[in-house]
Every structure is written in structure tokens, then in C-alpha cells.
Amino acid sequence: MVEEEFKVRFHEMSPDRNVPVWMLQNYFQQAAAIDAEQLSYGVEELTSTGVSWALISIKFKFFSQINGIQNIKVKTWHCYSDKIYSRRDFIIYDENGNEAVHGTSLWVIIDLEKRRISKTPQAMLTQRLDTISDIEPKTLKMPSFEGQMPLSEEKVVTRIEDIDINNHVNNVHFTAWAMEGVPSGTQNSKTIKEITVDFKSEARESENITVKTYSMEENSFWHVLTRENDGKIIAAAHSVWV
Description:
Layout: E1 2-7, H1 21-38, H2 43-47, E2 51-62, E3 71-81, E4 86-93, E5 99-111, E6 116-118, E7 152-157, H3 171-178, H4 184-189, E8 192-199, E9 208-217, E10 220-227, E11 233-241
Antiparallel strand pairs: 1-3, 2-5, 2-8, 3-4, 4-5, 5-6, 7-9, 8-11, 9-10, 10-11
């Protein structure tokens, strides 16, 4: 378990001065990498053996917004690993020490050459904490949108700056792109309460991505990211606003 402190910077805030969810995901990702390194299964150690981490699902539950320039703290810990999945939870605290966000995430080990899921190293199976958050780490059950017009349809072209050390688009960008389709009226008058993002496939540089947003219930949205050249869904998200 680690607790890392971050100072919010001006360019990390949205116009309402709230720190958006994808920036909080960046903070979590950094803290997670530090904790994994201390537990001897960090990115550099794993990549030397031909494997690395891949995030497959993350969920945020908001109790308040991180607003304005301030020092925040991210606490994260590895809950457990089974033969395929590893669960990591986190809490984000505001400058007054209040719990602003709870979260949970599921990870897998991927073979960097075959680009396939690999079994969890045996040593990780014995490293666990019984402490877990109050959020169940379930992947999304996305409804069918056949015949339904999306609220919006955005086009994204992946860039060099989106690519991370695993040579694919970093998961944070998927979350940011999903949020592009939230109606401006919702973004201007409401705040996000929950969001779950599932990461289904890799994206590489110079790929065309379509982001469609659908509304199934009041103040909640489904976000579907599809790669244009093969029609494959690469990520899906569900957000709830209050």
C-alpha cells in the first residue's frame, strides 16, 4: 500500500476548476506504478521478462469533486491476484483529508510479443491485502444499441503523444474520449457521480476511432469507442451524473 501526494496544476483543471476523471486516473496510475514497483512487480521489472500490466476495467465513485489548486493524496493497494486477474483499489483524498473518490480496478498480465493475456506470475498469488473498497469490480454488461441513434458521434485520430511505454494508447485517453459525448447541458449543470470504463482492445498510433454516446436513462450515458478499420469495440464506458 502506498500514499502518494500530488499537486493539482492549472492545466489539469476543467473550466469549472474541477479535476476531470481522466486526470484523476492519471494520478491513480502513477501511484499504482509506484506501489507495484515496491512489491517487485513494477513495469520495468515485468517488461524485462517480456510481459507487462494491462488495465481492463476501472470504476470511480465520487463523493465530492477535487476543485482548484490543491494538494491531494492517492492511496492504493493490491487487493489480490488469481491466475488471470489482479484487483487494485484506491481512495483519493482532497486537501482537507476527506475521501473524495473511491475506486477499484482489474488488471491482467500481457505477453508483449504475442499481445495476449498471460497467467499471473506465481509470486503474485501470495501477495494480497484483505482490505477492499465498497465497490464491486464488475465489467460492464453493455445493452444493445441496434437501431438507436446516438446522442453524439465524435471522431478521434490517435496521436504519438497518446502512446505509452507498452506501445499502445494509454488507458487514460480512452476515458477522456468517452467523456467527449456527454451533452454540454449535463456537463455544465451536473457533476459526475460514477463511471466505469472497460478496456477491450489495444489502439495504436494513427488509428481512427469513433466515439458514440447513448442515453438509456436520465442523467446516465453509455460511451462506445470503435476502431474504424475493423469495426472492433476497443472500450466502453457508463457514466452517471447528479
